[in-house]
Specification:
The complex is a heterodimer of chains A (210) and B (141). Chain A has 210 residues and is mainly alpha-helical. Chain A has helices spanning 5-21, 23-33, 38-55, 61-75, 80-95, 103-121, 131-146, 151-167, 192-208. Chain A has a single domain, classed as Serine Threonine Protein Phosphatase 5, Tetratricopeptide repeat. In chain A, helix 1 (5-21) runs parallel beside helix 4, helix 6 runs antiparallel to helix 7 and helix 8 packs antiparallel against helix 9. Chain B is of the alpha/beta class and 141 residues long. Helix content of chain B is 51%, strand content 13%. Classes of the chains: A mainly alpha (210), B alpha/beta (141). At the A-B interface, helix 4 and helix 5 of A face helix 3 of B.
Chain lengths: 210, 141
């Protein structure tokens, strides 16, 4: 299946379903080392995204991504709104007005997304944030794309790397966000933003292989 | 016209209360609270902040102050969506919210330009209060 606007919409619907499925878990993770609203926030944002997509499907992948971006920015609140919103916004700019995306375009979009998150939140690798899932994902995506990988292969590589990156946040001490106020008490818990990033990428990979 | 202030907080009441306090010494300055989510809950709102910038900047620019980190993230996203000529005169300042707001409001009230108002806010980074413990040595001494 070509990665066109319709496929992008289907992928976003898969993300929304994953967010709903993991809402309680993400909230609990955030309750452990945050302010306890991550699952609720993302869920509210993606519910709003679905409402908009139901009202009228955008015509290009970039238009889909931009709709997701502005909706998340306006509805998610917390740190995740600006961060995930910026990620989708940069991804939208990166893919330009292409009607369909290939593996290279997807790797480029993920890179732009990660760069946007870093520019916004200024987290570095090891700070125990979503960047610790995104950067391994970007590296894996680039490698897959350089090897001529399809959209599915690029996203699968990204998802797997993100999952590893999320688990790897467990022993880290948070240096950004609410968790940073907890100091050493943040050690031993997965970062909720890294976990949700991994779920998001796995949902995209799953949709791409349908 | 004067430089306006936007007070970004996770709480609607906190931002409103602080605006009331700051206005006591700066009655002609446009001080716009932007606290809480769109439905009045705890959190920050891109739309509220964007609207507040529009109100606070009447041509001379505006500064934004925030309470916690995600307030900065939402504020900086809002500033990014401004037209370039407006974005140039809207400045988010990293200063303690309450003292920074009062200090900046006074700077604007006495006719300060954008740079002077930013400077007023920044003074709050260094200022001590009239009393109270300032280090654990004070506590132990």
């Amino acid at each position: 299946m070509a990665c066109d606007a319709a496929a992008t919409v289907a992928a976003i619907r898969a993300v929304a379903a994953t967010v709903a499925e993991h809402k309680v878990e993400l909230t609990h993770l955030d309750r452990d080392i945050g302010d306890g609203d991550h699952g609720e926030n993302l869920s509210r944002g993606f519910t709003a995204v679905i409402t908009k997509l139901d009202a009228g499907a955008p015509e290009t992948p970039t238009a889909v991504l931009k709709l997701v971006a502005t909706t998340l920015i306006s509805t998610v609140g917390g740190a995740s709104g600006p961060l995930f919103g910026t990620a989708f916004l940069r991804a939208a700019t990166s893919v330009g007005d292409a009607g369909t995306l290939d593996g290279a375009a997807v790797a480029g979009a993920l890179t732009a997304a990660r760069d946007g998150v870093v520019a916004r939140g200024k987290a570095e690798s090891g700070d125990k944030t979503m960047v610790d899932a995104l950067t391994p994902a970007v590296n894996a995506a680039k490698a897959a794309a350089e090897g001529g990988g399809s959209v599915t292969e690029v996203l699968s590589a990204a998802a797997e790397a993100a999952e590893g990156g999320a688990v790897a946040t467990t022993p880290l001490q948070a240096r950004k966000g609410r968790a940073s106020y907890l100091g050493e008490r943040s050690i031993g818990h997965i970062d909720p933003g890294a976990q949700s990033t991994a779920y998001l990428l796995r949902a995209l990979a799953g949709a791409a292989s349908d | 016209m004067s430089v306006g202030l936007v007070l970004v907080s996770h709480s609607k009441e906190l931002a409103q209360g602080l605006a009331d306090v700051a206005r006591q010494m700066a009655p002609s300055v446009t001080i716009v609270p932007a606290g809480g989510t769109d439905d009045g809950g705890i959190g920050t709102s891109f739309d509220l902040i964007a609207a507040a910038i529009g109100e606070a900047d009447q041509g001379d620019g505006a500064i934004l102050l925030y309470d916690l980190g995600s307030g900065y993230l939402t504020a900086s996203t809002a500033v990014e969506f401004l037209e370039p000529d407006q974005a140039e005169r809207v400045v988010i300042v990293d200063a303690p919210l309450v003292q920074g707001a009062v200090s900046a409001a006074i700077s604007s009230q006495v006719g300060g330009d954008l740079r002077a108002v930013v400077s007023g806010a920044l003074e709050a980074r260094r200022a001590n209060g009239p009393g109270g413990v300032r280090s654990l040595d004070d506590l132990d001494g």
